[in-house]
């Protein structure tokens, strides 16, 4: 079905196609070419990051982080259930036991007040997910991790260019992970990045990313041949994708400014409905600098959300709900989780509705979406 206003639409903002042509003309479209290195340096410089390595996806970056932590069967990892399946898979693949914790009702982020009680002698890592580009309480999470000697792996798939107390998401834990999927703020179709923030992991990260070989050292002239030195996988993206991404990263400020305008237009147009108690708007704590990744509303119940989705679809507008909680999935149930164990997650996941949000969304389209939502509530 073709929608008058789709949920998402990929975009070109600068020299994406020129750079891709340059990559082809330069003779290298496979990984770790000119544009991969330029993307990594730009991100390192912009975010004051220790080391950034482009990956094929945020999933790949999370898998690399799990390998870098040395997780083994029986180790425990604390994470929210309200997240994409990749957050869980990366650690389940290493044999870790997933300990799902509930989320905060205001930001839908991991509830830091519940972390301490989830820690056991087998806990090895905490994985905060920065939902909608709004930071978790990283001071509290890092303090708990330090107290118990745990790794902190930031799932900042939605948080590229967002901040917490002035520091960029992805640089606050031991490791950070980004996504450049076509639904994110800065895109290349499929792609991601791993940020290593703890000293001593840079070389191992390169080896894991290069299929477990010291190939990166060979190309720098540090060894006279490369060989298999550790376990790893093929986590390096094609340089032709990095070429597309580099043009996007060059325009981060412009993209974020545009998304800010879209966000603020939604917020102003829907505020009257929120004031009447018909829906709830997103919350951004004072110490969080968002990247305006998405705009969502929280509705009264599942029935209202279902009816609103149908109403908007009839008007040619695609809106979507988000994650089905992982603890209520078939795999989660096989792990022993049951309905009612994470009440905030279960309640909010049934009531959240994501509105169309992409760089090319015009103000008239935003106002049209808001108008149709108002009409649904009889307030148009």
Task: Please describe what this structure looks like.
- The protein is of the alpha/beta class and 380 residues long.
- The protein folds into two domains: 16-250, Type I PLP-dependent aspartate aminotransferase-like (Major domain) (Aspartate Aminotransferase, domain 2), CATH 3.40.640.10; 252-376, Alpha-Beta Complex (Aspartate Aminotransferase, domain 1).
- It is built from 14 helices and twelve strands.
- It has helices spanning 16-25, 34-47, 58-68, 85-92, 115-118, 138-148, 202-209, 215-219, 239-250, 252-275, 302-314, 330-334, 343-349, 363-376; strands spanning 51-55, 76-80, 97-101, 123-126, 151-155, 163-164, 167-168, 175-179, 192-196, 288-289, 296-298, 352-354.
- The chain has a seven-stranded mixed beta sheet, with helices on both faces.
- The model has no long low-confidence stretch (mean pLDDT 96).
What are the SSEs and their pairings?
Layout: H1 16-25, H2 34-47, E1 51-55, H3 58-68, E2 76-80, H4 85-92, E3 97-101, H5 115-118, E4 123-126, H6 138-148, E5 151-155, E6 163-164, E7 167-168, E8 175-179, E9 192-196, H7 202-209, H8 215-219, H9 239-250, H10 252-275, E10 288-289, E11 296-298, H11 302-314, H12 330-334, H13 343-349, E12 352-354, H14 363-376
Parallel strand pairs: 2-3, 2-4, 4-5, 5-8
Antiparallel strand pairs: 1-9, 6-7, 6-10, 8-9, 11-12
Helix pairs in contact: 1-9, 2-9, 3-4, 3-7, 10-14
Q: What share of the residues does DSSP label as strand, in percent?
A: 5-15%
Rounded mean pLDDT is 96
CATH superfamily of the largest domain, by name, is Type I PLP-dependent aspartate aminotransferase-like (Major domain)
Categorize the overall geometry: globular
Helix content: 25-40%
Major β-sheet annotation: 7 strands, mixed
Instruction: Give the terminus-to-terminus CA distance.
Output: 26 Å
Write the CATH architecture name of the largest domain. Answer: 3-Layer(aba) Sandwich
- As laid out across the biggest beta sheet, the strand order is 1-9-8-5-4-2-3
Rg on CA atoms, Å: 21 Å
Class by SSE composition: alpha/beta
Number of helices: 14
Query: Could you say what the CATH topology of the largest domain is called?
Result: Aspartate Aminotransferase, domain 2
For the record, what CATH class of the largest domain applies? Alpha Beta
Give the tally of β-strands: 12
Please, how many domains?
A: 2
| Helix-strand pattern | HHEHEHEHEHEEEEEHHHHEEHHHEH
